[in-house]
Design goal:
The chain is α+β, with helices and mostly antiparallel strands and about 600 residues long. Helices cover about 15% and strands about 30% of the residues. Strand 2, helix 4 and strand 3 form a beta-alpha-beta unit.
Length: about 600
């Protein structure tokens, strides 16, 4: 007999019955007989064989090795999480679908030919079959290639003719019909030069009913994304080369959301043979297939949830100098990474309460007495983040002198303005409401952004130089082990009484934190009126004092603070290193003997 961790247990040792016990047979008794015998014991809750599991790994399809895009987007690692669900229908609106073993058992009834007005959406061009093959060709069937999603079902709607052209009216009707037929994902590898209110209404209809709508930037090599890809509600995909640079044919511009491999994509031809294609049309079905993988884990996921998930998990900065940090017009938020998306998407099946960090302080006129919040995002990929500036609604919480009209600006590490807002309903109201934590007062400010790893600064001022107490907050809307909202540091004016600086933060899983109160050393950065002797208190959710410090060297954790490289520059400044269980905490910075001045409160999540 072995313990669950593999160590042998002596016959007279106590056995840890809190975990399953592994019993090794010596071959005398067959497994079924041993199971039957053990089940007769009154103290045994369950018995089962030691089953064998395996990762999905590398498919055996003969031409899989030619499908370089799978390695680029890390399909195999994603397949270790899921290979897809038959509960998810992907509608392919294209030139139709040819009969092939690659789609055996996967095509649902209800497909339609809008070009010839019949129920046989046969592919007379090849484009639609190739697109469907990239997304969902059968794997491990001894034929041709493997799709990104092996389990979803396919609904083919033929909306393009033998020349790969089609009227908007047919495409629009197909969007409505695919939605009503239960499609969860619509792949729309189509685009035109003219806008259409009718098609936009169809897309909005689909999205409002839970459909994930994915389309392309198109292949003119221009800086104009074709319609409907330029609509903000669509997830729009461009194409990359083998080396992750932008494919020369791929359209670019502000409408692009992310990119995926689009050159020499091996897939299924309309004659059932292996073919390779290029174009954004073959980048989009990779994204559609990953979205369908995620939808199999989280069937209720919506476009508003799927889009930031896909964008936050894309790989940024891989395409050379044109692929700048964060969103850019050539790559959007980055290149699709199926593994990262599934890592994140598998956790969305049970969404966590958004984690946040916040600081409350008095905002005064002038740049040096504005409230300046610093945010650092670390890890492998971007985060979907909500930044808020709260003022008027503090009055309802009993805070006197609340700032009545806070404004908010967000800057990156290069001091470039990322976004600004005054009165949150004036921009992104739907995105902000979708977070379920929109500000309570319309005069308050909020910004939702997918932020690449790096440093950011949120600046809160009073409109027209007004003064008052405000709150700046940063919310991590998607917790994942691959990236962290690692710390917040807020610079503000420390007054007396209730108008001190109060930093709040939420700890998810128990972890180590360093909390600091910085004052005198701000003078070295040219900050006038720095607080000369800040004190620091750390309180729990009930308001109980957890720890306090004045002069960091006097704290018992000073060696740990120094060891992680966070030793304050001035001995009069405060700092503490603590292991904090999950929960809400508040860091309060005051001036010793009621001194006033500008101070910095910092919260670092450390190893």
């Amino acid at each position: 007999m072995k313990s669950p961790r593999g160590g042998r247990v002596a016959g007279d040792d106590l056995v840890d019955v809190e975990r399953p016990i592994v019993v090794e047979l010596n071959g005398t008794l067959p497994v079924p007989a041993a199971i039957a015998l053990l089940r007769q014991h009154a103290d045994v809750q369950f018995v089962e064989p030691d089953y064998v599991g395996s990762g999905a790994g590398r498919p055996s399809d003969p031409s899989y090795g030619l499908q370089w895009h799978h390695q680029k987007i890390q399909s195999e690692a994603a397949w270790d999480i899921t290979t897809g669900s038959s509960d998810v229908i992907v509608a392919v609106l294209d030139t139709g679908l040819s009969t092939s073993a690659e789609f055996s058992g996967r095509v649902v009834s209800g497909g339609y030919d809008y070009v010839n007005n019949d129920t046989l959406p046969v592919d007379d061009h090849g484009h639609g079959t190739a697109v469907a093959g990239v997304a969902a060709a059968n794997a491990n069937n001894g034929t041709l290639v493997a799709g990104v999603n092996w389990g979803c079902r396919i609904l083919p709607h033929k909306v393009l003719d033998a020349q790969n052209n089609g009227f908007y009216s047919r495409q629009t009707q197909a969007i409505y019909d695919a939605t009503d037929a239960g499609a969860k994902v619509i792949n729309f590898s189509i685009g035109g030069h003219s806008d259409s209110a009718a098609m936009q209404a169809g897309i909005d209809y689909a999205i409002s009913r839970g459909v994930i709508f994915i389309t392309i930037s198109h292949n003119d090599g221009s800086g104009v994304v074709r319609f409907p890809g330029r609509l903000p509600q669509c997830i729009t995909v461009g194409a990359t080369e083998r080396d992750d640079t932008r494919a020369a044919f791929s359209n670019y511009g502000p409408g692009i959301d992310l990119v995926a491999p689009g050159r020499d994509i091996y897939t299924v031809g309309s004659n059932g043979a292996l073919q390779f294609w290029f174009g954004t049309s073959f980048a989009a079905p990779q994204v559609s297939a990953v979205a369908a993988l995620i939808a199999g884990l989280n069937p209720s996921i919506t476009q508003r949830e799927m889009e930031p998930l896909l964008l936050a998990s894309s790989q940024d900065g891989v395409g050379g100098s044109f692929d700048t940090p964060g969103r850019d017009q050539y790559f959007g938020y980055g290149r699709l990474n199926a593994k990262y998306a599934l890592d994140l998407g598998s956790r969305r099946a049970a969404p966590a309460q958004p984690l946040n960090v916040s600081t409350r302080a008095r905002v005064l006129a002038g740049d040096e007495r504005a409230m300046i919040g610093g945010i650092i995002i670390t890890g492998a990929h971007a985060k979907n983040t909500l930044i808020r500036a709260i003022g008027p609604s503090l009055s309802a919480a009993g805070v006197g002198g609340a700032l009545q009209d806070p404004t908010l600006e967000l800057f990156n590490s290069s001091r470039e303005l990322v976004a600004s807002n005054n009165n949150w309903r004036e921009s992104q109201p739907q995105d902000i409401e979708a977070t379920t934590i929109a500000p309570r007062d319309d005069r308050e400010s909020a910004i939702v952004r997918i932020l690449a790893p790096g440093s950011y600064t949120a600046v809160v001022r009073g409109k027209d130089g007004a003064a008052g107490v405000a709150l700046v907050e940063a919310y991590d809307l998607q917790q994942t082990p691959n990236s962290k909202l690692a710390n917040i540091s807020t610079r503000a004016f420390v007054d007396t009484g209730e108008n001190v600086v109060i930093g709040g933060f939420i700890v998810g899983a128990a972890s180590n934190y360093v909390v600091r109160a910085i004052g005198p050393s701000l003078q070295n950065s040219g900050v006038a009126g720095a607080l000369q002797n800040p004190t620091l208190e750390l309180r729990d959710a009930e308001g109980n004092l957890f720890a306090e410090n004045d002069d960091w060297g006097s704290d018992g954790s000073a060696p740990q603070v120094e060891a992680v490289g966070l030793k304050p520059q001035d001995p009069a400044e405060s700092a503490m290193h603590r292991h904090l269980p999950g929960g809400n905490y508040t860091a309060i910075v005051r001036g010793s003997n009621d001194q006033t001045g500008v101070a910095l409160v910092e919260v670092y999540n450390v190893p």
